[in-house]
Design goal:
The structure is a single chain. The chain has about 300 residues and is of the alpha/beta class. It has 2 domains: about 190 residues, Periplasmic binding protein-like II (D-Maltodextrin-Binding Protein, domain 2); about 90 residues, 3-Layer(aba) Sandwich (D-Maltodextrin-Binding Protein, domain 2), CATH 3.40.190. The protein has 9 helices and 11 strands. The strands form 3 sheets. Strands 7-6-8-5-9-11 form a 6-stranded mixed beta sheet. Strands 2-1-3 form a 3-stranded parallel beta sheet, with helices on one face. Strand 1, helix 3 and strand 2 form a beta-alpha-beta unit. Helix 3 packs across helix 8 and helix 3 packs antiparallel against helix 9.
């Protein structure tokens, strides 16, 4: 999933700033809030977000969750606490904005699907490439989006799948993706293949299936696709990326407990990091290899 072209990013940024005039933490969907229904003005959020003194799960600490293993380029060396990799860096930047230094951050391992499943959460927020969606907002809150994302197709070089230039070319193939992801949704909703997609509990299982020829191609976010083809399956290539559906950018958001008192504060922190250029700087630093891939139509 590669960041949208600069023109699109500019348009999205402009739209986001306009929305912030009336609400904090709005989702990219115009008919709902990223927080899953809770909203507050920026000034109201500012008055209740005392730095370092939020109503976190552990007083004076900020508990952040992600999956295990934690993949590059989102994290580095499977160590979320080292501050390296895009999402680790974003997490610490949000923590700092909220008034918590690195020593006050506690990391927790939570499986991807469990992060946004119904039920009380054991973390203050989760960061794990979780796309904001209306369906997920029924069970959890989301912060404002911290990254605009695209889905991509990976296939082994020289294979039939590697020669695909359109969505129609993918319909007869055996495709795979991690369960519960928008990657899997793109297979079922956009490609609509003639055979059922293979769903894997972990992304590394999908990658292994590609290596072993159990599937013709897999779908992941674009930065992950660039890492997979550069470091994990070097005899694979990125076939292409999908367009955003309905003209709305897909965005990753921080996941919070449904109705969390922290949602407006975390959204305000993300918004500040976007406005002061921090998110763009971190994206350039950690995701710079994710250049544009052909668009599959």
């Amino acid at each position: 999933m590669h960041p949208a072209p600069s023109a699109l990013r500019s348009a999205v940024a402009a739209a986001t700033i306009a929305l912030l005039a009336t609400a904090v933490g709005c989702a990219p969907q115009p008919d709902d809030k990223a927080s899953g229904g809770s909203s507050s003005s920026a000034s109201a959020a500012g008055s209740t977000c005392a730095k370092g003194k939020l109503a976190t799960r552990t007083s004076g600490k900020l508990t952040i969750a992600t999956d295990e293993p934690a993949y590059e380029p989102w994290f580095k060396d499977d160590k979320p606490a080292n501050g390296e990799g895009f999402e680790s860096a974003v997490a610490y930047a949000v923590a700092k904005q909220l008034g918590y230094d690195k020593s006050a951050v506690v990391w927790q391992s939570v499986p991807f699907n469990k992060a946004f499943a119904p039920g009380v959460k054991t973390f203050d927020f989760d960061i794990n490439q979780v796309s904001i969606s209306t369906e997920r907002k029924k069970a959890v809150d989301f912060s404002s989006g911290y990254y605009d994302v695209r889905q991509a197709v990976i296939a082994l070089k020289g294979s039939k799948a590697a020669k695909a230039t359109s969505i129609a070319d993918l319909k007869g193939l055996k495709l795979g993706a991690q369960v519960g992801t928008t990657s899997l949704n793109y297979i079922s909703d956009v490609v609509k293949p003639s055979q059922e997609a293979a769903a894997y509990s972990k992304n590394d299982q999908a990658i292994s299936a590609l290596k072993n020829g159990q599937v013709d191609a897999i779908v992941t976010d674009l930065p992950t696709a660039f890492y997979v083809t550069a470091a994990q399956v070097t005899n694979a290539k990125i076939v292409g990326q999908f367009e955003n559906q309905s003209g709305t950018p897909e965005q990753f958001g921080l996941v919070l407990d449904k109705g969390s008192d922290l949602t407006s504060c975390v959204s305000s922190a993300v918004d500040s990091l976007r406005e002061d250029g921090t998110l763009a700087k971190l994206e350039k630093q950690w995701l710079s290899d994710a250049v544009d891939a052909p668009v599959l139509k």
